[in-house]
Amino acid sequence: MLRTAGLVTAVVVGLNVYLARYSVRMSPISRGFRGRRREGPAGRVPPGQYVTTDFPVLSAGPTPRTPLDKWTFSIATGGGSKSWTWAEFRALPAETVTADIHCVTRWSKLDTRWQGVSVDVLLDQVEHTAAYVLAFSDGGYTTNLPVADLTGGRAWVAFDFDGKPLAPEHGGPARLLVPHLYFWKSAKWVRGLRLRDTDEPGFWENYGYHMYGDPWREQRYAGD
Amino acid sequence: MAGTAVRGRLNWQLANVGSVTDETARVRTITLDAPDWPEHRAGQHLDVRLTADDGYRAERSYSIASAPGEPLAITVERLDDGEVSPYLADELMAGDELELRGPIGGYFVWSAADGGPLLLMAGGSGIVPLRAMLRERQRSGSTVPARLLYSSRSWDDVIYRAELSGYDATVVHTLTRAQPAGWTGYARRVDERMLAEVAWPASEAALAYVCGPTSFVEAVATGLVRLGYPPERVKTERFGATGG
Amino acid sequence: MEPVDGNAIGGLLLSVFGAEMTAAVGTCASCGATGPVAEFVVYLRGPGTVVRCRSCTAVLMVFTEVRGITCVDLTGLANLTSPST
Question: Is C4 within 8 Å of B9 when comparing Cβ atoms?
Fold first, then answer.
């Protein structure tokens, strides 16, 4: 018993010593530096986020400029694919969407207004049994999502923001809009979906970002 | 010795703020006391890291405003939507601590041994590393001819305004948004016509350093290459339109 | 926001490679263009840092930081040569 107690004490002491050393190595607080703070209406701001009234433009590459007469949106399954031209896409029923959006770089923007075609409308025209999707965009960007998160009225291919055609730097002419997940899943310049049976990581997921990305469970990185 | 120098640069170190001096309404120079600071080269920058009480950290890079051997200083412009620059330009005061890493950079650097003629092209706060080069040129007694073309929004936005007029160098300002009464200088963004008038002809084999917002650097660097400057004699450092 | 250039990742490269790398010369694995890291096109402030070829826009390097660990992907570079100091 004594030996066990001694071992426990040693472990606890060891842990305290480790923590003390760790805290000495940690950065000192910068007096008066607040960073951006999380002030927003109760229940609207996920953990670790701050509210902005800007619309930050973050990109991993140059803004693509696909002319509308060349633009297509396609859904590929194992068996084949279905494709819409811009005119065909814009002839589909569209909805107005008001949503809060949350970027993994910590900014949240509330009550953003969009117009888009529900992904339900698009997927309804394709026969499939897939459980997962890899969304792909002009410029090579990809991101993965479960089909379940793109259906049931939770996702759109959006072409208008704030009453105006979606600007190229924000993903225009059309981007994926999936507000209930971190905004890196709302692929800018989206050109289609590849339906798959397995969940394969897209661009950021390959580099350590979370495969699912629920802001309310703060699933920023793999393992969160 | 080289190993120690690298380790010194690799680690974040604590510096004390010595003094803060307002250069313009939006720009402030901060002198820093860093006990383990290796000597830097003109044109290099350092990284600053801030830590909030909840552990949140933000890092930004700032060009070093001082010449090697002078007290270490950075000059920071407050960006309206910035996260770090408003803190450095407004809140920080003498005696505060700042975490630094550096000096950093082996490409956008000049010392007297690099020779000249020296053509410096600055857009806004892009003047900071170029001012360090001018200070180094003066300190080292270098006699290479130097010309500075400096684009600012208005006369009140010109950083180091008085100091720049005191160098043995040709300083040409262009004021893009507002000019004082009686201004006879350039009053537009730098374009190829202005470059042709201010820059040495390519035959002089000048060494050019271009620093400022990305769009400024692209326009100027392209213009110089079109005037015949070999691309390897045009060094560039892009700050980006936002970022602080 | 506008991209910057490889000067902006000098500190990141220093911490990853343990050496000054902005003057290092890289070759794009896609198009073969060669130039100093300082002249690469750099996209900051996103979920990670993406570095692209100025000639053909192909991705050269990607850096992310996950729980204090830096993840580095250099597969877009055919070559990266540090200048002799």
Answer: no
Q: What is the CATH number of the domain that holds B42?
A: 2.40.30.10
Domain boundary among B42, B72, B104: B104
pLDDT confidence bin for B7, thresholds 50/70/90: low
Q: Which residues pair with B211 in a beta bridge?
A: B122, B237
pLDDT at B9: 62
Interface of B with A in 43-62 (CB under 8 A): 49-54, 56-58
Give the alpha-carbon dihedral of B84, B85, B89, B91, to 10 degrees: -20
* Residue B220 belongs to a domain: yes
CA nearest to B127, candidates B106, B88, B153, B103? B153
Q: Identify the residue among C1, C2, C5, C7 best suited for mutation to test binding to B, counting B beta carbons within 10 A and taking the highest.
A: C7
Given a cut of 50, is residue A23 above it in pLDDT? no
Q: How much is the ipTM here?
A: 0.95
Regarding whether B182 and B120 lie in a shared domain, the answer is: yes
- B243 falls within a domain: no
Domain boundary among B104, B127, B150: B104
Mean pLDDT (chain A, rounded): 89
Q: CA A189, A193, A196, A198 torsion: positive or negative?
A: positive
Interface contact A35-B12, CB threshold 8 A: no
